[in-house]
Amino acid sequence: MTIHRSAAPARAGEPGDVRVCTVLICDDRPELRDAIRLTLGATPRFAVIADAGDADSCLATILKTRPDLLILDVNMPGGGPHVAAAAKNIHPRLHILVFSGRADTAIQQAMLTAGADQFVLKTGRVRPLLDAMENAYQQITMSTAATEDPGGPDRAFPSHDEHLLDAPRCECGSPIMYRRRVLMGQRGRKTTFDAWCTTNAEHRLPAAIFREIAELRTGLGT
After folding, report:
1. Global pTM?
2. Beta strands in 117-198 (DSSP E)
């Protein structure tokens, strides 16, 4: 896992600035990560803030950096549809662009079903990736504008009330993500709590785990 220094993303509406989308590259080929970073270095709309070469580092970096856009390989160590699902669970607003050399319709459908937003085949040309990223940019900026619009009756506060727990763990042995969500609406403030397996969000967590998590709330500051 490598985290890169970058300028703070500009907010929409600031004079003289464009909205900058932060990018995380997760691929096991360092030369490809470097090539993508070099290409995006000339594009003011994107800032590569980190990269990772395996699934565990990828998910940990998403939790740490909360990027706007994830460029995700399928074949990296530990990779597959479950990584896309776990990434969305950690950061629901994350735009996932799968960049894969596998021309397999079943894999493509599995990744999209798991939570990926786009699937681009590696062909040796950078243009298809850049076109997909421009599409992602439009979706991200539109989504951000809608979230920042205070006109809706209920709004979630921007928060970092998410914690990757070392213990307890899911029955499959994977870490558990715990999240507190605060909403403000016409009826006042409402707080909800949830938790899920970071490997497979469909795993049902035993009741004992929820009791342990409840005991941890005070220590987590939630």
Report:
1. 0.64
2. 118-121, 155-156, 162-165, 176-185, 188-197
